[in-house]
What we know:
By secondary structure, the chain is α/β, with parallel strands linked by helices. It has ten helices and five strands; from the N terminus they run H-E-H-H-E-H-E-H-E-H-E-H-H-H-H.
Amino acid sequence: MSDTHAARPADIVSPVTHQSLSDKFTPQAAREAGRFGHDKPTPENAIVLLVDHQIGLMAGARDVTSLAELKSNVTGLARVAKALNTPVLITSSNAQWQNGDTLPEIKELFPETPIYRRTGIINAYEDPTFRQALEEIVERTGRRHIIIAGVTIGTCCTFPTLSLLNDGYQVFPVVDACGAWNRYEADAAMSRMANAGAELVTTFALACELQADWKKESANAMLEPFIQNLPEYSFVLQNFWNNANGHSVPDPFGMVK
């Protein structure tokens, strides 16, 4: 037998009893050694802030491929938070006027969650009522990893991100669940937040980081945002399950074996 047709070694399959390992060093120890301190968000240490996802503001986003994609990312992030039972704070800015109300999909996902209606203060973290609500969750749960998205990214996301970083929180702006008036605003905002120490993430990369292991109990609930809001992956899933135990569409030509 030639080398090109040599038998492959047997596959090595991880036991299903295995759980994901933590890093060998704590974030603090890594920083003390001069390395990046990997202090990742988890369903147990995070709070999700949904800032100003309002119908009037959403309509003005011009940095995205489509408003449908932006809306899907926003609702996908909200579904991820709900699937993982992560605390969520929702706020709006001047909803009584031109900015409009919070997306109805968000209100439907969290029917028992109040919306903190800011009446002029642009930076949500500078609003006394909203900050009190956040600090009550932090005090009660010890959570200090803040996942944030807001419209627009240059104000509603960036301003509270910088304030939260200043006050010692780990902050993870979900940049594809924001939206900007133009690409310049988005680029400037992402640069500013990253340079300040925020860790920029995207909706479904963050979802995978939070889930960590598809063997966890939250896996079934977490499939919902992937199916509903990431159609590229939804098609992969649906195509597989359609054909997993036979072909859902018979092949009249007899070509499919």
